[in-house]
């Protein structure tokens, strides 16, 4: 999605591009994956030409509630949308966003889409950059590597990707059900039905609800399905309402930032440049902001409106944004997944005190 946003924004400035996709055809990801998109990123999608479709499908929410065990700690209300203003948040699956971006890019004559084109070689010289993808070589003025956390472009450029991974796993289930909940985000800290860990509930389009559980490091999804424990886990949220599992997966969080976001003519964007824990919805949102920052600078340099030195500001500005996102998500994860006994006692004490003040 980050590569498509970049190409669409370049086309807005009448700059042509080639999008190289390793997959043989249009990808059809199962499940929700990234779901929360914030107001300023909806503005980016508007400039890319597909905000109307995304807003029409997405679920709008303005309230976030946080619970400790059985007590509500606090609720945060985001300003509602005004006339001509996007809502503060919408929930929509990453797959839907990609579909709308791809449809818009496919209709744009300044964008050439090449599927089955995995990049295996990158060469930079003073005036251009070229890549080998399959049997074809492509040459252009600049290269944007928006090819995900296992970025081939990043590896070929020799840029390190330091950081860490968390041992705890997180389970996601997309379920289709009719639930008596309003359109709001609900976060449960240390509930009796997931003791010592967290649960997050979001409403998504088409009657789907996204539930995230923090689960132990040794969690086995297949075993949980077979034993009936997954059904018991889901029913702690749905009660007696019938439901259908649309998608379920378990994964670990990673926090990593590239050692550099750019070379002389190549740039990293999205997960190729940074990975965050997803609390705070800073992954794909940040990737769209990378594209927004980079595209106009490339266009201005290409059209002679700015010197090539402008492009260096992409690396400094987006690296600063990545450092701030990493600071926030690292602090959040240190609280949600404390790594020492003393940290666990401190966090539980803090939450109990807040709970007692409210009750």
Q: What are the key terms here?
A:
359 residues; alpha+beta; eight-stranded mixed beta sheet; three-stranded antiparallel beta sheet; 10 helices; 35% helix
Q: Which band does the percent of strand residues land in? A: 25-35%
Overall strand count:
18
Cα-atom radius of gyration = 22 Å
Question: What is the mean predicted local confidence, pLDDT?
Answer: 90
H and E order: HEEHHEEEEHEEEEEHEEEEHHEEEHHH
Major beta sheet, specifics?
8 strands, mixed
Structural class: alpha+beta
Shape descriptor: globular
Task: List the topology elements.
Blueprint: H1 2-12, E1 17-20, E2 36-38, H2 39-48, H3 51-57, E3 59-60, E4 63-68, E5 71-77, E6 89-91, H4 94-106, E7 111-114, E8 119-124, E9 129-133, E10 136-140, E11 143-145, H5 152-157, E12 163-177, E13 185-189, E14 198-204, E15 208-215, H6 221-227, H7 229-238, E16 243-257, E17 266-268, E18 274-275, H8 284-302, H9 312-336, H10 341-358
Parallel strand pairs: 1-7, 4-13, 11-17
Antiparallel strand pairs: 2-6, 3-6, 4-5, 8-9, 9-10, 12-15, 12-16, 13-14, 14-15, 16-18
Helix pairs in contact: 1-2, 1-4, 1-8, 2-3, 8-9
Structure commentary:
The chain is 35% helix and 29% strand. The longest helix has 25 residues, at 312-336. The protein is built from 10 helices and 18 strands. 33% of the residues are buried. The chain has helices at residues 2-12, 39-48, 51-57, 94-106, 152-157, 221-227, 229-238, 284-302, 312-336, 341-358, and strands spanning 17-20, 36-38, 59-60, 63-68, 71-77, 89-91, 111-114, 119-124, 129-133, 136-140, 143-145, 163-177, 185-189, 198-204, 208-215, 243-257, 266-268, 274-275. The N and C termini lie far apart (44 Å). The strands form 5 sheets. The protein has an 8-stranded mixed β-sheet. It is α+β, with helices and mostly antiparallel strands and 359 residues long. A hairpin with a 4-residue loop joins strand 8 (119-124) and strand 9.
């Amino acid at each position: 999605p980050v590569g498509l946003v970049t190409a669409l924004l370049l086309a807005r400035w009448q700059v042509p591009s080639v999008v190289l996709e390793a997959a043989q055809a249009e990808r059809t990801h199962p499940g929700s994956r990234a779901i929360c998109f914030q107001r300023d990123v909806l503005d980016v999608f508007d400039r890319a030409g597909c905000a109307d479709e995304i807003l029409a499908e997405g679920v709008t929410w303005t309230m976030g509630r946080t619970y400790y065990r059985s007590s509500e700690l606090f609720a945060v209300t985001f300003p509602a949308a005004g006339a001509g203003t996007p809502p503060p948040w919408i929930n929509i699956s990453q797959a839907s966003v990609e579909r709308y971006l791809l449809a818009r890019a496919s209709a744009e004559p300044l964008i050439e889409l090449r599927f089955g084109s995995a990049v295996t070689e990158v060469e930079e010289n003073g005036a251009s950059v070229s890549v080998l993808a399959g049997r074809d070589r492509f040459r252009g003025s600049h290269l944007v590597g928006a090819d995900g956390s296992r970025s081939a472009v990043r590896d070929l450029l020799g840029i390190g990707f330091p950081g860490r991974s968390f041992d705890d796993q997180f389970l996601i289930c997309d379920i289709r059900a009719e639930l008596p909940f309003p359109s709001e985000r609900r976060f449960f800290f240390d509930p009796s039905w997931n003791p010592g860990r967290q649960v997050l509930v979001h409403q998504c389009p088409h009657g789907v609800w996204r539930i995230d559980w923090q689960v132990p490091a040794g969690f086995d999804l297949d075993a949980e399905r077979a034993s009936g424990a997954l059904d018991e886990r889901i029913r702690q949220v749905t009660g007696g309402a019938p439901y259908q599992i649309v998608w379920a997966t378990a994964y670990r969080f990673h926090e990593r930032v590239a050692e550099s976001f750019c070379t002389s003519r190549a740039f990293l964007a999205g997960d190729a440049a940074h990975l965050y824990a997803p609390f705070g919805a800073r992954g794909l949102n940040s990737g769209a902001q990378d594209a927004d920052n980079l595209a106009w600078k490339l266009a201005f340099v290409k059209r002679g409106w700015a010197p090539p030195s402008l492009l260096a500001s992409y690396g400094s500005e987006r690296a600063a944004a990545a450092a701030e996102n990493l600071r926030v998500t690292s602090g959040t994860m240190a609280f949600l997944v404390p790594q020492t006994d003393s940290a666990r006692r401190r966090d539980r004490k803090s939450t109990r005190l807040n709970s007692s003040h409210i009750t």
